[in-house]
């Protein structure tokens, strides 16, 4: 069952769902706004990535400037939410790109858009410019929405970083 703003606020008030920082203005009808953190992860060009291997992909950390970052067409990086999310067991989050961002070709989630029960941390957002335009990205930019669903029962094995 998808939670309404009333149910989401009740979870936050009872400290079962923790969103830090949280601004009540970010609560929508059935979602919570998520914003870009200043730090992003960019991958080095022409990497060979063996998905069966535990080898780390070559990358470097990059800071977004307050004046903006010009994201080139087809460019990809991993963004991180400014908000730290603690999802209670028995609930599941789904992240979707903000509608107005998607309409200009920015995709903030294309695959791994879930927040499992037991998640406790900032959420990585795979971000890609699918347009033929240069898009300017800023730290603090409202980029995605978090929808929260109540599960039929708590998970036997909630997510852990182990």
Description:
This protein has about 160 residues and is mainly beta. The chain has a single domain, classed as Deoxyuridine triphosphatase (dUTPase) (Deoxyuridine 5'-Triphosphate Nucleotidohydrolase, Chain A, Distorted Sandwich). Helices cover about 10% and strands about 40% of the residues. It has two helices and twelve strands. It has helices at about 5-15, 100; strands at about 20, 30-35, 40-45, 60-65, 70, 75-85, 90-95, 105, 115, 120-130, 135, 140-150. The strands form four sheets. Strands 1-6-10-8 form a four-stranded antiparallel sheet, with no helix packed on it. A four-stranded antiparallel sheet has the order 2-12-7-9. The longest helix has 9 residues, at about 5-15. The two termini are about 30 Å apart. About 25% of the residues are buried. The model has no long low-confidence stretch (mean pLDDT about 90).
Through-space gap between termini: 29 Å
Order of helices and strands: HEEEEEEEHEEEEE
The spatial strand order of the largest sheet comes to: 1-6-10-8
The parts where pLDDT drops under 50 for at least 5 residues are none
Please count the beta strands (DSSP E, at least 2 residues each): 12
Q: How many distinct folded domains?
A: 1
CATH superfamily: Deoxyuridine triphosphatase (dUTPase)
Structural class: mainly beta
CATH topology: Deoxyuridine 5'-Triphosphate Nucleotidohydrolase, Chain A
- What fraction, in percent, of the residue positions are helical? under 10%
β-strand amount: 35-45%
Please give the CATH architecture: Distorted Sandwich
Average per-residue pLDDT, rounded, comes to: 92
Query: How many helical stretches?
Result: 2
Largest sheet: 4 strands, antiparallel
In the CATH scheme, the class would be: Mainly Beta
Shape: globular
Radius of gyration: 17 Å
């Amino acid at each position: 069952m998808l939670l309404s703003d009333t149910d989401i606020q009740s979870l936050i008030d009872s400290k079962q769902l923790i969103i830090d920082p949280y601004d009540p203005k970010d609560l929508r009808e059935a979602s919570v706004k998520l914003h870009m953190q200043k730090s992003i992860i960019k991958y080095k060009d022409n990497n060979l990535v063996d998905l069966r291997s535990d080898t780390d992909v070559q990358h470097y950390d990059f800071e977004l400037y307050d004046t903006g970052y010009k994201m080139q067409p087809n460019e990809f990086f991993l963004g991180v939410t400014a908000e730290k999310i603690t999802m209670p067991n028995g609930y599941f989050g789904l992240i979707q790109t903000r509608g107005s961002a998607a309409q200009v070709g920015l995709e903030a989630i294309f695959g791994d858009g879930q927040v499992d029960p037991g998640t406790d941390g900032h959420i990585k957002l795979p971000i890609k410019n699918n347009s033929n335009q240069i898009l300017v990205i800023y730290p603090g930019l409202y980029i995605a929405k978090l929808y929260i669903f109540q599960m039929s029962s708590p998970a036997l094995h909630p997510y852990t970083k182990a």
